[in-house]
Amino acid sequence: PGGRRGNRAAPERGYAALDAGFQTDVPDHPFDIVLANPTTSSITASVVSHRHGDGCIEFAPVGSTRFARTQPQHLHEGMPGRFALVGLRQDTQYLYRFLFRPEEAKEFVPSDTFTFHTPRSANATFTFTIQADSHLDSNMSPEVYAQTLRNALADRPDFHVDLGDTFMTDKRRDFREALPSYEAQRYWLGLLCHSAPLFQALGNHDGENGYAARGEGNIAHWAFAQRTQRFPPPDIADGPGAMYSGRTAWRDDGGANYFAFRWGVALCIVLDPFWATTTRARGRGSEVELTDESWRWSLGRAQYDWLATTLSGSDAPFVFVFLHHLVGGRGSVARGGAEAAPYFEWGGNNADGSAGFAAHRPGWPLPIHQLLVQHGVTAVFHGHDHLYVRGERDGLVYQCVPQPGNARGGTRSAAEYGYQSGTVLGSPGHLRVTVGPKAGTVALVRSVAAGADGDRREREGNGTVAHQYQILPRSRK
Q1: Half-sphere exposure of 385 (CA within 13 A, CB side)
Q2: What is the Rg, in whole angstroms, of the alpha carbon atoms belonging to the chain?
Q3: Which helix (H) or strand (E) holds 305?
Q4: Which of 46, 282, 445, 461 lies at a C-alpha separation of 20 to 30 Å from 141?
Q5: DSSP E strands: which ranges in 255-367?
Q6: What is the DSSP string of 417-451?
Q7: Is pLDDT above 80 for 344?
Q8: pLDDT exceeding 70 applies to what percent of the chain?
Q9: CA–CA separation, 73 vs 292, rounded Å?
Q10: Structural element, H or E, at residue 392
Q11: Predicted confidence (pLDDT) at residue 4 exceeds the cutoff of 90
């Protein structure tokens, strides 16, 4: 009672008018929780209550009867509050409950019990999940998106990675009209991330670009503020023992969202090709033909040097790189995976195949692909193309992640986007990645909801593993 009702924005314009609007209505619910910023001794619970009142969280290791409790906080309706759960043990599963007392009540009422797992020890086996391009546009089926998140929750992941195009901020005539998408994604992602900390990569439609961060009240600053308020990024701390390196904070030159962390046998690296890209495309051009204008996409030298240092300083058996799309790629919107890897900042070649890295990135040691290969990176997980494609180049897996909620996601665009090899399947679904000291697996878990199965040719049942492959630890050189 008294929970959040559906949230419908004012009539949409621009992209929404062409695409029948964004789906930002969500079921009535009293609160949502998104876990963030896990460390070996703490985690942040971001809570939005849809009533005014006081809240706190009690938590304990599984099997313990001694619960710790955070200090109560006053929560304003619809506004995120952050609770720091501290004094945690590494490689331990915890139970917790959210306790809430409405303004007119005297007693705290506990929620259901949720769980989380603190970062694993160096040789532990664990699972994480990945999604990409949830969009919340007219192609998204709410029933299928919810089923995908429930499927991921059933995998009991240690954490969940979202590869962007989550808010579609630049697809409104007035970017502020995207606010209901940020609020709705709190509900959707909260279906899973109350028990799996969320890590986010930026997408090209999420409004945070270096070339858009000019003038007062610009889209990039606004989008950064909305995202980080509702979905806290990792806190970057210097010094020995810090959980995260990179940059997620706002500075005088704008924002950023790149970071790395060690979890069990894996080094996880999230890249940001958007804030350092300060040149807007001169014209729309072709979305699929190679063009030297794609040299405009860049990590920037600071992020590139951080990436090289991060790779060289890790002995993790598995190394995973996450980003929305390659730093370059095919056409005006950077399509493609393994076949697009040889070009621009990512691979070093010009559109005609000639060498261009030394001229366009003078003083940089290696293109990104070669840097990743040199350090034995296991896989690059990217979104953007709304497909499941498992490709490979020079022993490096390029894995395109499908949409979680598009029941009609097919494969007709694969050839147009330059995919010529590997395993190609359509949406919807999520990826489940399990890794241990000796081997790991990557699986596409299919999502099907009654009455919303679209026109896909694949007819697997919900939860079916539509494709799976093995990954091995990197060899020591």
Answers
A1: 35
A2: 22
A3: helix 301-312
A4: 46
A5: 258-263, 266-270, 318-323
A6: TT--SSEEE-SSEEEEEEE-SS-EEEEEEE---TT
A7: yes
A8: 93
A9: 53
A10: strand 388-393
A11: no
| Paired tokens of 353 | 């195949």
Give ∠ CA 34-40-43 in degrees, rounded to 5. 20
User: Residue for token digits 């304003």?
Assistant: 76
Distance (Å, whole) CA 340 – CA 436: 30
Token readout for 172 is: 């409104």
Mean pLDDT of 397-407: 97
> What backbone torsions phi and psi does residue 430 show, to the nearest 5 degrees?
-135, 165
Using CA atoms, how far apart are residues 172 and 22, in angstroms rounded to an integer?
Answer: 10
Integer CA distances (angstroms), 113 to 32, 161, 196, 197, 211, in order: 13, 23, 13, 16, 44
- 3-state class (DSSP) for residue 372: helix
Position 220 pLDDT exceeds 80 = yes
Tokens 């080094």 identify what position? 267
Q: Which residue has the tokens 């720091």?
A: 84
The residue count of the chain comes to 477
Supply 60's token pair.
């304990």
Tell me the one-letter amino acid at 365: P
On whether the CB atoms of residues 50 and 200 are closer than 8 A, the answer is: no
Residue 18 pLDDT greater than 80, yes or no: no
Token pair of 263 as six digits: 């979890």
| Alpha-carbon distances, residue 374 vs 365, 428, 456 (angstroms) | 12, 33, 39
Check if the beta carbon of residue 222 is closer than 8 Å to that of residue 199. Answer: no
Could you please report the per-residue DSSP string of 220-268?
HHHHHHHHHHHSPPPPP--STT-SEEEE-S-BTTB---EEEEEETTEEE
Strands (E), 124-203: 126-131, 160-162, 198-200
Contact 77, 71 (CB under 8 A): no
Q: Does residue 446 contact residue 461 with C-beta atoms inside 8 Å?
A: yes
The identity of residue 476, as a single letter, is R
pTM over 0.85: yes
Q: Please check whether residue 296 is in contact with residue 279, taking contact to mean a CB–CB distance below 8 angstroms.
A: yes
- Report the SS3 class of residue 344: helix
Cα–Cα dist 152/168, whole Å: 23
Kindly tell me if the per-residue pLDDT of 15 is higher than 90: no
* AA letter at 166: T
**Model pLDDT for residues 125-137, shown as the tens digit of each residue:** 999 999 999 999 9
